[in-house]
């Protein structure tokens, strides 16, 4: 196998979803990994998973890092996990619903609140992002949204980027942003070669924003939830 062959998008998404196993700081240089590198890391993750599940099978305490699947037939288990995270990191229960949302694809999750009085309404988690990135991504997202929720309850600034919010995310190990995941071909303007949209497949109506010209499809990329862009195989 060519050592420079790139991993597939599916392999990279699996690795990212379980990245804490091989890199707790989540600083692994994913964009530099070959197909073989990712394959070996995935095998390492699978061995770790099997061993960890066996060692914790009798444990009754909440262990967020051993959650690999979440029931999607209802939002009951999702809420239970979110409430346990709330108690663990904030010392208070979550008193708003936490629900799966099939329609949300442009974010990992959302904290929804009544804007006039800034009253919390609910937390939603993208079901689509769960199918893409797995349970650990959901847990990270829930921690992010719970930081919004608890700061809102305390009448403190809770918007993305607010110093109070950034400090809370760092304290509990939550991602600072729940960004949209992109996957597809990076396109370029056929006239001036300027970078254009990321598209899954060619469409006749798509033109470059700069010259209104046809698009050239080149490398296939994936933008992970932490914002990193990695070139992969289809």
From TrEMBL:
Domain SprT-like: 76-218
The protein, known as: SprT domain-containing protein
InterPro entries in the record: SprT-like_domain
GO BP terms: response to stress
Source species of the chain: Brevibacillus laterosporus (Bacillus laterosporus)
């Amino acid at each position: 196998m060519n050592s420079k062959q790139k991993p597939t998008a599916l392999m990279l998404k699996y690795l990212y979803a379980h990245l804490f196993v091989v890199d707790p700081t989540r600083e692994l240089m994913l964009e530099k990994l070959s197909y073989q590198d990712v394959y070996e890391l995935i095998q390492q993750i699978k061995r770790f998973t099997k061993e960890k599940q066996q060692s914790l099978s009798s444990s009754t305490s909440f262990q967020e890092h051993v959650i690999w699947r979440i029931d999607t037939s209802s939002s009951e288990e999702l809420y239970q996990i979110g409430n346990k995270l709330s108690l663990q990191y904030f010392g208070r229960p979550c008193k708003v619903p936490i629900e799966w949302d099939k329609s949300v694809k442009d974010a990992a999750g959302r904290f929804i609140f009544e804007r006039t009085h800034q009253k919390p309404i609910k937390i939603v988690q993208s079901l689509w992002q769960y199918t893409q990135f797995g349970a650990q991504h959901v847990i990270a997202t829930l921690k992010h949204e719970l930081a919004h929720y608890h700061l809102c309850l305390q009448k403190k600034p809770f918007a993305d980027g607010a110093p109070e919010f950034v400090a809370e995310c760092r304290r509990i190990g939550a991602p600072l942003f729940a960004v949209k995941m992109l996957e597809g071909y990076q396109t370029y303007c056929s006239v001036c070669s300027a970078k254009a949209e990321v598209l899954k497949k060619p469409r006749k109506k798509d033109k470059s924003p700069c010259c209104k010209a046809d698009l050239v499809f080149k490398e296939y990329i994936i933008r992970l939830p932490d914002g990193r862009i990695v070139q992969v195989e289809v």
